[in-house]
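Troubleshooting: if your tokenizer reports a length mismatch, compare against these two reference records.
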Amino acid sequence: MEKIAPFLPFIASSRLQDRQFSEELNAFLFVERAWSQPKEFIKVFKTSDYLLHCFGYSEVLLQLILNREKKQDPSKGPVQFIVLFDLQTVNIMDYVTPSGYLKLWQLRSALWQDWFPEMCSAIYLLHPPRIISLVWSIAKLFLSEENLKRIVICHSEKELSKHLPKWFVPKEYGGDFVNQIPPGDESGVSIRRKITSADYYKPHLHYKKYGIERPKPSKKDIGPGEKFIIPLHVGNDKNLLLWDLTVSGEVEFCIYKEKVRICRFSFKLKDAFRTNPNYSTRNYDLLRTN
């Protein structure tokens, strides 16, 4: 939580938990607003920390689903989420060219679809831009064919009302529901704070935290299937090992102690993510104690 807390104020996602549930639809309500400052948003965290947040948040939602399924008749089938995704704050042109935040969205979407593939029953896009063909082109960058079929584009509150009961939908989108439980707003979405330069992520803080000067970095080109080994001599007392690295491809990083592997990380970029010249590297700051 320590790594995630600093950038949570910049995320506008659902805080409804299990408060809005439709027996008829067998689904919870999830509301999210699209990024309003995508270029600034990716400057306030490390990729690894944001994806950790996304994974943890999805696990929380999964627990809500499992708890509900335990209480109801199995014949009702799997409990899912209905997503209202508000595009009102989006500048669609931010997503038509390769960029770091576009690739981050792809990573987040891949994580959700790989680990939680059946969580959503429908995704309603609200306040879409006028060029609908562009919306579909961008959606195809993020979603699998199966999840593309779940998308419903609603140009008005009247269109949304054809699909969902009025009591289930937040008042902001033409329904009756008004959330009164903080930290969410009336639609149950966390209130996002504007990002300034003072909020930008400051790298290598783990060195400063322990009062250790960061060593001069070095570069190594590693070919496919090649191994690169750095031998270290440490004493018998308790030691603190800190490091950071930047990768531009798929790398497996391991720490061995007397031929026994005690730590392993795999940094992978899917094929679709390798083509973006503005997203060629990712940074990781790590520490290990023994």
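Reference record two:
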Amino acid sequence: MSSGKDGRHGHTLLGLIKEIFNWYPSNYPAAERNFREVSSARWLLPALEVLWGLCTFAQSRVTNVHQLYACRFLIGMLEAPVFAGTHFILGIPDSPKPFYFTDEDIKLAKKRLDRAKIRKPGKLGLDVFKRSLKRWHIWVFVFCYICMIICGYPDSYMNLWLKEEEYSVVQINRLPTVTYAINIVASWLGTTLAAIYPSWTIYTGATASLVFSTICMIVWTIPTALKFVAYYVLGMSGCLSPILYSTVNTVVKGDSEERALIMGSMMTFGYSFNIWVPLLLFPTVGPNGAPRWRIGWPVSLVFRLLLWAGFILVLLLYRRDSKRSNDDSTQETESYSTEEPPVVVQSEAHIKE
């Protein structure tokens, strides 16, 4: 039978594999193709999802820790490119002509791309690294994702508390599913609302809920019912990552190469922290061990607040850059008279106030 230490090693292995395979978005070479060509990403990413799921199910049949390590290795290898790759490809129209779009629809979409100054992706060369490192985008977004990885680690370990309280095996397996259900709903509802209302309001509301739950965990000696509520409310974290990635697509929409680099860097550096931080802040046993985590929960609270601050900083910097761009466009329009009136591109609904 494997020990908690073996399980921690398996988790560390998964994080290491994610760090290795996350660096380069798996779908990026397809982004250099023409609109009408078949993109390998539309086949690669779903295939990785299916294989990832099969390996996850296979873990239920392992008989020793070495088989578990093998499954975790495969899961990390298959899972890593999917998340960043999916978010990246959703931000570029490089898939072949779908049956539900007419020629007029495609022409209209291309006009909108030109109007919004969104160009086709180019090659991911050294110049991309140089210009990306000179801008604030990659630094702030990577910082936000690192904060998200660190503060979100203890959210899914309600089962350790249930085990400590001597709940039955059936209850230990069933009760935490409420958190995952809330996570799913929050992921869908949060991103939907963020497309209608300012994203900072959704992010602030979710962060406030998570701060409340984290404070409950820091206090720890609270009524059992309140502790259940606190664990379940941690599922609100489901909306944070999708909104953050959609914000990357919005803020860096005009530079596909930089966007690919940012998304790969976010997951790479985020999971590089996930390799060693849990070993220090969230040990399985000991006076500061699970599920009490006397050090881990306070640190999680700090990084939740830093994540929120980083996200707000992104919106403020983006608004500043948009204002400068609009001012420059206005001056250029005034300098050169044209027959057609200038096209005003409205800012994104989920960014505006």
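Descriptive notes for reference record two:
- The CA atoms of residues 212 and 230 lie 7 Å apart.
- The chain has two domains: 1-122, 127-329+343-353.
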